[in-house]
Each structure stands twice: as structure tokens, then as C-alpha cells.
User: Which sequence fits this backbone?
């Protein structure tokens, strides 16, 4: 069986890690790497790996390189937001190249951006490409797993997911994303931008609601700081006692006064008992725990790579994780 | 959206329960019921429901009824063994009707019966039908869940699943299937038939091995009785102290002396701490527990019904649970 040809597009921390996994995987052939940052162009991709190595793959800044590289699939990790990635995604899928993207808003593309979703779907079908947004959260821990677990129950009445992440064990951008070390005033100012903290909670609520057929009339979230009760040091920063250690982000899907879907995410430095839980009330109930939690960064890189073959096998169009065969890893 | 038309074929305990779920589900229309047992023919299907009700659906004994009923999908629950169901499956899929089957050997159809698998695949493609074998075990708890959980890890080195079922809480056929109440001599005689105990362990090992790309040169299982350490009563029978309470069935996929996949199933009357566990050694490790376990009978009926829409949407041919979109339930 011939190997799928892969190009990595977007070489931030997750993109680089995904590229490193794709490079190592026996059933994939990483043939190129693209990042719009001119400071990265011309380097060997392996210079960004940990540990650094030589891959013979030179980072390019121009998306036009795809015409020469001719990959089957692009692993796309450039932004959380659909308006930011729209043109990139269109440019790739018009070339007939499939896309696995970490863009959080692509999990349920028409939720916040129906017209962008429609144009991507049209371009993908016209070009013969499949586009999928996925990741650990959103994309797995607080949504897809609830859907998969529902397979063994009937008539679900209520869904509750709990995710607890000790941000102190994660990369610096994640710690910054949850506001670790900020004052509460700084936190408030960031929160007001609407692009702070975890991205994708409303998409997770929507995915669960649509997958299980819950009728909801509200899809809301709350975002609150969690304050450090004692000083905490991470490899990257120090959180003083009383400063912001991270976030608590709760998503709720409701019909009238009834909350049908509750997704409860804590990500802060020092969070105890990291774990992922899925609880379905149905016939029968299903109660599922990932002990220790789903490790964020390596798991996110992994699920992107683990989705490539399924996306390559799917019919053209803009898909969701509900539409394609489930992602899976490969033995050593 | 029009409802999928469903016929239930095979009205044993699981088939009846699945029929009852299909009848109740808002996005399905149960249009018929077939069982080859002439004693059931002519009855109202609802006479077999719990609680009994009237459905207006008369049980028929002849598979030819499908020509009149014209379902989109047949839910097929007649036997664990492919040689037994071969003709039924061929007769259904030649009519262009999709099949969701509880036949355990259909989980990995070419493992034990490659020529039957090939003829079903050919007939399905010729007729434009999709055929899928699924269930809780095999089909979910000890195989599919390990595959899905692998999505968030990279380079899996080892897979271990543990399933503990208190057979005392299950239906009589399940208690009989695991030998509850037998003497050890009776157990030995039954075991020698090769069609006793849990069916599908080798299929589960094979599914995990293929899904994750493990190269294995042995797929073996052991089957031992678990003896009652004290007298146990179930709603259906009594297990004397020292008699067989049930089974321990361990499947192993190995390469040389290295066990790569270990599936450890205990099903006996009085088994403590019922649960399902999935443990993947990889980068990172994944450790998953279904607290209380996946309830067998209602869960098996549920996963059949929860797979209908995905099978109806899939391309024609004989598929496995790895090939189609994941099953999912529906909100009340």
C-alpha cells in the first residue's frame, strides 16, 4: 500500500509536533512544510523538532509550494478561527488536497460561520477534497467521546463532561491562553476580547446536541478565573498567591429552563486530579473516566495524524468528526 | 427527513429488545418482523415486548416478506456463527437491503470464514447493500473502544482490555452461555464443543491488531471456569458452592514471545466490581474505565439500533466497525 503524502501547514507548537509524528509514522510520507512566518522559511523542518534532527525538508513560506509537493493531505495548524483560515483552506482544497485542521471553529463549521462553511464545502466538493476540523478539545474529550459512549445506551436524557487539566504541565502558550500569572484586571480585559481562554466550547455543545438530536434553544458558556490559593511555579512562569492560575469554562446547552448538556472545563496551574469524565443519563447510564486525563499537547498532535487516513478515504466536502470513520493510532 | 424503514430479523432476547427500541425511536419506522420459528409467526410483535403492547406488526416466518416490506435496513439477530447466517445475509443483501447484524463472527468476517466473507461482500456490492456486524462484545467494549481511545496517543506498544460482568444480573441465556450452575465435568464437555462461552474473542483480538497495525503471529484464547466460592442465587438459577459460576476468557495477540494485545473477560455470577477498562501503552498512555461496566443486554440492543443510520449512509459492501461513522444514540 502506497504511503499517503503529507504536508504540514502551520508550524506553531502543535503543528511542529504533528509534523514530527507524521515524519516518524511508517504509513505516511511527510513531503513538505509550510509556514507563513518568513523567519522560519529556509530552515530544515527538523530544526524545530525536539530533539532537533535533519529531515531534508525545507520550510517554505508560500502556499504555492503545494503545486510542486502534491500531497494527498495537508495537516493544517494555523489559527483557531475560521475567518483567519478561510482563504488558506480554500486555496488548499481547490487544489484537490484533503485537509485535517486543528482550527477549533471547524469542529462545527456552520455554527458561527455558516457562509464560510458553505463556501469551503462548495470548494471542497468542486476540487474533490475532504476537509475535517478535529483535536482533543474540541474534537474528542468533551464531545466526540460523549457521542461514541452513547452507542451503548438508548434515549439519552442528559450529557455531562468534566475535563480537568493541570496547566502547569503544559506548554507556555497554553499557560498564557488560560491567563496563568495574570492579575484579575488583566484577566477581565482579556476576557472582554472574546478570543481568550479555551476556544471551541460552543462548538462542543453544538456537536453533542446535533449528534444526539437534542433540541436546544440556548448554547451558552461562562468563563471565570481560578485564583491561586498559594504560589505556583511552572517551568515557564510563576503564579503568585491570589493571581490568576487559569480558567473554569462551562458550556451549557439548554431547552427552556432545562440544561441538557453541561461541559465543565477546568484548566489551571496546580489543578488536582487531572481527568476526563463523560456521564450520560440514559437507558442504561454510561459513566466513563480517562484516568489522569487526556494529555493535551501530544494528544492533540496525535489525533490530527490519527485522522489522516480516514479523511483521505472519505468522500469530498466539509465534514465533521461524526461523518468519517473514527481516528486511530498505529502500533510501534 | 424521511424515516429509515427497519425490519427486525431474528426475535430472540436481543432481537426483540432491539425491535422494541427501533419501534420506539422517532427517526426510525419499524415496518416488519421476521423469525424462522413457526411458533412465533402470526403473533403481534408487541406480544414479545416487555411490557407487552400492540404494534400492528405481525411476525412472519418467510424471508420473502422483505419484498413486500421493502425496508432500508434489516436488524439481524439470528446466530453467532457465519456459516449459519450466510444464506440469510446473502438473501437480504441481494435485495439491496442494508444489514446491521449481531453475528459475532461478522465483526472480522474474513478471520475465520474468508470465502463466506468474500461472497457476502460480492453480493452486497452487486445488490447495493451495506453489511455490518457489531455489538457490545465483540464490537465495542474490548475492541472498538481501544481503537477509539488510541486516537489521542501515538505509537501504541501494548493494548489491554478488562471486562468484568456479573452474570447474575443478566438474562437466562447469558447465564447458561457461561455455564452458571454446571458441574466442572459438564463445563469440560461443553467447552470441548468449541461453541460455548463468549463468542468473538479472536475477532476482538484481530480487530484491534488490524486497526492499530500490530503484526501478530498468534491469536489465541484460553477459557476457564470460575467456581463459586459460596452459593449464589440469580432470578433464574442457583449456583452451588463449588459449581461453575461462569467463565474467564482471555484472548492474546502475540508476536513471538511478546503479548501485544491482551483481552481479559470475566463473566460469572457474583463477579465483583463490574467494569470495562481499556489500557493503552503509548505516547502518551491512555487509561479508560467505564464505571459499573457496559450493561450487556440493553447495551447490545442499543448499539445495533445506534448503528442503523451510519450503515444506511455507508457505501455498499461488507464493512467493519472501523469503516463506517461511529454509532450514536438519540436524545429522548
Assistant:
Amino acid at each position: 500500500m502506497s504511503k499517503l503524502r503529507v504536508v504540514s501547514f502551520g508550524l506553531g507548537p502543535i503543528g511542529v509536533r504533528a509534523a514530527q509524528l507524521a515524519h516518524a509514522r511508517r504509513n505516511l510520507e511527510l513531503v513538505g512544510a509550510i509556514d507563513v512566518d518568513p523567519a522560519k522559511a529556509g530552515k530544515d523542518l527538523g530544526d524545530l523538532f525536539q530533539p532537533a534532527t535533519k529531515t531534508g525538508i525545507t520550510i517554505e513560506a508560500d502556499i504555492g509550494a503545494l503545486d510542486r509537493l502534491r500531497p494527498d493531505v495537508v495537516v493544517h495548524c494555523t489559527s483557531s478561527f475560521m475567518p483567519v483560515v478561510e482563504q488558506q483552506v480554500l486555496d488548499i482544497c481547490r487544489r484537490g488536497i484533503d485537509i485535517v485542521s486543528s482550527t477549533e471553529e471547524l469542529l462545527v463549521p456552520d455554527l458561527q460561520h455558516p457562509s464560510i462553511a458553505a463556501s469551503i464545502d462548495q470548494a471542497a466538493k468542486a476540487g474533490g477534497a475532504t476537509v475535517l476540523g478535529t483535536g482533543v478539545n474540541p474534537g474528542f474529550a468533551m464531545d466526540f467521546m460523549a457521542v461514541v459512549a452513547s452507542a451503548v445506551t438508548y434515549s439519552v436524557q442528559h450529557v455531562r463532561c468534566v475535563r480537568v487539566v493541570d496547566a502547569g504541565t503544559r506548554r507556555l502558550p497554553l499557560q498564557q491562553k488560560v491567563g496563568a500569572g495574570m492579575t484579575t484586571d488583566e484577566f477581565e480585559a482579556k476576557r472582554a476580547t472574546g478570543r481568550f481562554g479555551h476556544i471551541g466550547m460552543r462548538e462542543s455543545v453544538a456537536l453533542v446536541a446535533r449528534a444526539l438530536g437534542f433540541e436546544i434553544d440556548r448554547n451558552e458558556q461562562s468563563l471565570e478565573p481560578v485564583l491561586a490559593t498559594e504560589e505556583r511555579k511552572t517551568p515557564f512562569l510563576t503564579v503568585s498567591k491570589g493571581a490568576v492560575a487559569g480558567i473554569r469554562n462551562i458550556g451549557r446547552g439548554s431547552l427552556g429552563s432545562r440544561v441538557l448538556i453541561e461541559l465543565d472545563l477546568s484548566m489551571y496551574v496546580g489543578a488536582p486530579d487531572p481527568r476526563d469524565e463523560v456521564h450520560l443519563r440514559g437507558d442504561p447510564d454510561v459513566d466513563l473516566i480517562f484516568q489522569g486525563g487526556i494529555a493535551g499537547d501530544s494528544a492533540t498532535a496525535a489525533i490530527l495524524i490519527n485522522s489522516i487516513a480516514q479523511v483521505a478515504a472519505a468522500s469530498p466536502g466539509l465534514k465533521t468528526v461524526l461523518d468519517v470513520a473514527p481516528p486511530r493510532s498505529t502500533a510501534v
User: Anything to note?
Assistant: The first helix of chain A runs from residue 13 to 24. The longest strand of chain A covers residues 154-166.
